[in-house]
Amino acid sequence: MRERLTQIVAVLLLLLLAAASYWYSRTLGGAPAPPPLPGTPDFIGRDLVLTQFDAQGRAKFKLYAAEVAHYPDRDDAHLKRPRALSLRPDQPRMAVVADTARSENSAEVVHLEGNVVVERAASAQSPPLRVDTEYLKVLPDSDQYSTDRPVQVRRGDSRIDATSMELDNIARTATFGPGRATLAPADQRPR
Fold first, then answer.
1. Contact criterion met (CB below 8 Å) for 101 and 82
2. β-strands 59-71, 76-80: how paired?
3. DSSP string covering 122-138, please?
4. Are 73 and 43 in contact (CB under 8 A)?
5. Helix, strand or coil for residue 54?
6. Beta bridge mates, 151
7. Does position 2 have pLDDT exceeding 70, yes or no?
8. Is 39 helix (H, G, I), strand (E, B) or coil?
9. Predicted TM-score (pTM) of this structure
10. What is the pLDDT of residues 78-101, one digit of tens each?
11. Torsion region of 10: left, alpha or beta (phi above 0 gives left; psi -120 to 50 gives alpha)
12. Cα-flanking dihedrals φ and ψ of residue 27, to 5°?
């Protein structure tokens, strides 16, 4: 009889817990939040750090931002004071900073604006590289970069000041608008 009473009490306690959970979900949980209005963010994060890993679990890319707002109707994200850092061990370290950034369509296209600086560390084959401009359009999947604004590129002792730039990092080609170039002699360039 005592075992039977213990089982009945246990079942009653479980029923009471289930009823309390149901009541809580109906009264305190409320209805799901309505979707955000077009043009309003569904997510805002501050002091954000995102890390992308390779198949072996090694960090290959980090993104820092003072603030990120995601807009679901366009699948855009707006970032304040973004800083991206490439951590690939087979490539020289590369860092990109800007005042703001806007990514479109899940980062298929990224627009960097205001005090844009791209720096690549020196490697055994090439000197350090620095690009300064006010705007840079990035196509991450195809590794292409462009700007229609004045740009300054410094690679070791060589320097290019131009009105625009298109860079294809995979094809290793760069096209510059009208400007001025100062190239260091081959025997003085760091190797």
1. yes
2. antiparallel
3. --SSS--EEEEEEEEEE
4. no
5. coil
6. 133, 162
7. no
8. coil
9. 0.73
10. 999 999 888 877 778 888 999 999
11. alpha
12. -95, -45
Residue partners of 137: CB distance under 8 A and separation at least 6: 109, 110, 111, 112, 145, 146, 147
Task: State the virtual CA torsion across 139, 126, 119, 101 in degrees, nearest 10.
Answer: 0
Closest of 38, 94, 41, 32 to residue 63, by C-alpha: 94
Residues 6 and 90: their CA atoms lie apart, in Å, by: 66
Element (DSSP H or E) covering residue 13: helix 2-27
Contact residues for 121 (Cβ-Cβ < 8 A; gap 6+): 92, 93, 94, 128
Residue pLDDT, tens place only, 34-81: 776 777 888 899 999 888 888 888 888 888 999 999 988 888 899 999
Structure tokens of 72?
């679901």
158-172 CB burial, b ≥16 within 10 A, e <16: bebbbebbebeeeee
The position carrying tokens 């009823």 is 19
* Alpha-carbon gap, residue 72 to 20, rounded angstroms: 35
Whose structure tokens read 């855009």? 76
